[in-house]
Design brief:
Blueprint: H1 4-16, E1 26-31, H2 42-49, E2 53-60, E3 63-69, E4 76-82, E5 87-93, E6 102-108, E7 112-118, E8 124-128, H3 132-135, H4 147-154, H5 161-166, H6 176-186, H7 199-218, E9 253-257, E10 260-264, H8 272-279
Antiparallel strand pairs: 1-6, 2-3, 3-4, 4-8, 5-7, 6-7, 9-10
The structure holds a DNA duplex (16 and 16 nucleotides).
Length: about 280
DNA sequence: CACTCTACCTGTGCGC
DNA sequence: TGCGCACAGGTAGAGT
């Protein structure tokens, strides 16, 4: 499940790798599954991408945006990519152009290809004139947001912390793994209403989100049962139900919150303050 | 507004 | 061995 740290790791690899995607010219676009292209036809996608040059890449939340300098029509367009559950982007030799779950391949100069694989086929690619067409629906990037803005956005919120942090219009980039890890680090129960948080708990939440994401970026993402082989971020609670809490040794438990598996330490992340409030 | 549910996908792992 | 099924989860959109 690529979330902000994994997507950032992809971006850095494409920008800083050898060769870099920056400066690469698209010779040909092969779409192996039409549904990967969203909002325009495969033919339109090919027509606009072929001949174009990658000249900028940035990330917002879990989206990657690639600026393409075009040869005809408007000077630039943007290719937006969301990896969703199982999507992966690689810059590799054209000898490795297709594997069983390859969804599209952009053939580049020098026998390189940008390859998009996606076992579950939820991932999507769009072409937009302006990234704001996508980012306007999103909150600030969860790693870029500073404390004052985070606290400002948190004030007035009354929703439970788990669905709130998963909501990409609140902050963009957290998914199920890093929400559970952030709430564990903040010692906050996922069912707590944001309205019940004291000032010190609000600051703890910001510090936890920022600290978890920064650490995970430094680790090039997580490693869940070997799924993200590139990353080495050690999860404390995610899918670790039945194992001891790394802080207190209490067994990690799993709940369902909304439709999501939710993992926590029942001792470190107690609901005591809520119970105390209800006892008045 | 807040929430719940469904659809979109497919590999995995379980019980029988 | 193999079948059926629940499950994993990000997001959009519909419904309560």
């Amino acid at each position: 499940m690529p979330e902000l740290p994994e997507v950032e790791s992809v971006r850095r690899t494409l920008v800083d790798g050898t060769p870099s995607l920056l400066g690469a010219v698209v010779l040909k676009a092969d779409i192996l599954r039409a549904s990967v292209v969203d909002g325009l036809s495969v033919e339109q996608f090919q027509q606009r991408v072929e001949g174009a040059t990658f000249d900028q890449i940035f990330r917002h939340g879990k989206y990657l945006f690639f600026r393409l300098k075009q040869v005809r029509g408007t000077p630039f367009c943007w290719m937006a990519v969301h990896l969703r559950m199982t999507g992966r982007l690689f810059l590799v030799s054209e000898k490795l152009a297709v594997v069983p779950h390859t969804r599209f391949v952009l053939h580049l100069e020098h026998h390189q290809v940008l390859r998009f694989d996606d076992q579950r086929a939820f991932g999507r690619v769009w072409l937009v004139a302006d990234p704001a067409e996508v980012t306007s629906r999103l909150g600030p990037d969860a790693l870029a947001i500073d404390k004052s803005e985070f606290l400002q956005r948190l004030s007035g919120q009354r929703r439970q912390l788990k669905p709130l942090l998963l909501d990409q219009s609140f902050v963009a980039g957290l998914g199920n793994i890093y929400v559970d890890e952030s709430l564990f680090r903040a010692r906050l129960h996922p069912l707590r209403s944001a309205a019940t948080l004291h000032a010190d708990e609000r600051e703890r939440l910001f510090a936890a989100v920022h600290g978890v994401l920064q650490h995970a970026v430094d680790c090039k993402g997580a490693n869940i049962n070997g799924v993200f082989e590139a990353g080495s971020f050690p999860v404390a609670v995610y899918q670790r139900n039945g194992t001891p809490c790394p802080v207190c040794g209490t067994l990690i438990v799993k709940l369902r919150v909304g439709q999501r598996g939710t993992h926590l330490c029942p001792a470190c992340q107690s609901m005591n303050s809520i119970i105390a409030m209800s006892w008045g």
